[in-house]
Amino acid sequence: MNAGINDKSSLVARDVDVRGFVYALEPVHRREQWRLDKLMSALARSQQALRDTELRMEEMQAAHDEQARNVAQALQQRMDPRIHRHALGFLTHLRDQRKQLNALRLEQVVERDRLRKECMALQLRLDGMARHKEDALMEFADEVRQRNSNEQDRDWLARSTGRRSRPMESTR
């Protein structure tokens, strides 16, 4: 986005020296850009934490499924009731851990979505500031052109007045 605006401003002000242009909101723009960078970093960390949680949930589900198959096979072989109860307790424990991970995952999804919305809102604000800067630069370029034009008019008038007075002097 910024590259496009820089290209556009260079086209708008190509015929004007814009070295004197000072954008009054530049410190605000810079601060907001830093804030966006910080939010983007937090969003990346949030997304990584969410991926890690989902991976742990998949691993937990795989362990649960494997344990359930083992219990089903052992049940067919007339397993000792204490071992069977212990295996079922372990399955319950895995299911409870998965529920806790799912609750954590849901919290992480909410946090990720909140960060995304903040990033989008801040990006829109920065885009608006970039457009404002472009408008200010165009206004500055127009003022410089107007000043240059007025100066050229004064110079031309001065030269043309000087030319008219010279022929009169030579006739004297």
Protein described:
89% of the residues lie in helices and 0% in strands. The chain has helices at 2-12, 26-76, 81-171. The two termini are 68 Å apart. It is built from 3 helices and no strands. With 172 residues, it is mainly α. The protein has a domain at 26-128. The longest helix is centred in the C-terminal third of the chain and has 91 residues, at 81-171. Helix 1 runs parallel beside helix 3 (81-171) and helix 2 (26-76) packs antiparallel against helix 3.
Properties at a glance:
172 residues; 3 helices; rod-shaped; mainly alpha; single chain
Task: Give the topology.
Elements (H helix, E strand, L loop, with lengths): L1 H11 L13 H51 L4 H91 L1
Helix pairs in contact: 1-3, 2-3
Order of helices and strands: HHH
First-last Cα distance? 68 Å
Using only CA atoms, what is the Rg? 36 Å
How many strand elements? 0
Mean pLDDT: 87
Give the low-pLDDT segments: 1-5
Helix content: over 70%
Broad structural category: mainly alpha
Q: Which sheet architecture does the biggest sheet show?
A: none
Helical region count? 3
Assembly level = single chain
Strand content: under 5%
Overall shape? rod-shaped
